[in-house]
Structure formats: C-alpha cells, structure tokens
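Team,

Forwarding the record for the chain on the shared tracking sheet. I've put the sequence and predicted structure together so nobody has to dig through attachments.
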Amino acid sequence: MALFSKKEAETEKTKSAEEFCKSVIQGFKEKSSHNKNESMFCFWLSMGGALAAPIFVTLGEDFAIFLGCYGNVFILSKLIPSLLSVSVAFSTAWLQLRKPQQLWALYRTSQRELEDNLYKYQYKVADYDNHKNPDKHLVENVTRIALDAHYSWLPMVPNPEDIKSSSSTKAKNK
C-alpha cells in the first residue's frame, strides 16, 4: 500500500525523517479536524431538527399569525417541519454510515502517537536513545502507525453485503 502518490513519494524521499513525520502528523490533524467538524455538524443538525420540527408542526399557524403573515401557514407548519425531518434523517444516516466520530478518534489517536514518536526522536529518549539509526527508526514507526490507522479504518467502510444483511435481518424481525 502506498502512503503517497508517485509525485508525493518523490518529494517525501527528499525530506528528513523529522519533516516526514511532521507532514504525516499534519495530514492526520487535517483528517481529524474534518471528521470532528462533520460529526459535530451532523449531531447538531440531528438534535436541533428533531427538537424544532414538532414545535413548527404544533405552533406554525400561531407563528404565522404572530408574524402577521397568515399566508405562510403552509410554510411554517408543513414545509419547515418536513425539511427538518428530512435533514434529521439524512444526518443520522450519515453518522451511522460514514462514522465520522470514529474516524475523528482514530485520526486524532494516530496523530498523538506520531507526536509521541517525534518528541522521543527529538529528545533521544526511549527507543531512540541508543538506536544505531534513529532517523530510520522514526520513519519505520511513522509508516507503521499510518498503516495501522489504515487497517483500523478498513472495517468502518460500509460494505454492500453488510447493508443487505442488515435489511434482511430487519425484514425477518417484522
């Protein structure tokens, strides 16, 4: 498995072990932040929409009267709750299918492991203290951590067979 494209691999060869580690740390940091933001957005959309939809259903007409635009009853009592419900369903399904919260934890953990190795390398402690080639050891650890993250990520990828078996299990339970 290649960690980088061919062009990136050529650039990586010219980097020092420390620069290489820092670039992989940055990559995990960006992935982690993206998944954190995605997870939080979907969570708040699910919670906010689920809480707001019934309010619009029950009070939509009263909102329209209060705002002085009775012609918007349909929008406030039917359209907005419907759109909120669709948003809730989509964001909940997205959280369950894509699992950004688990990816967030995986990438942040990998980032922290890499930072730990970088600090040990920089201060020549633990495994790096008496190692004959600390640069090579750091690169080996960085690539191992990145590959471990990949193998931890694989089971989270939605599998069509899992989706089929899940729907057939639900049908049998009915």
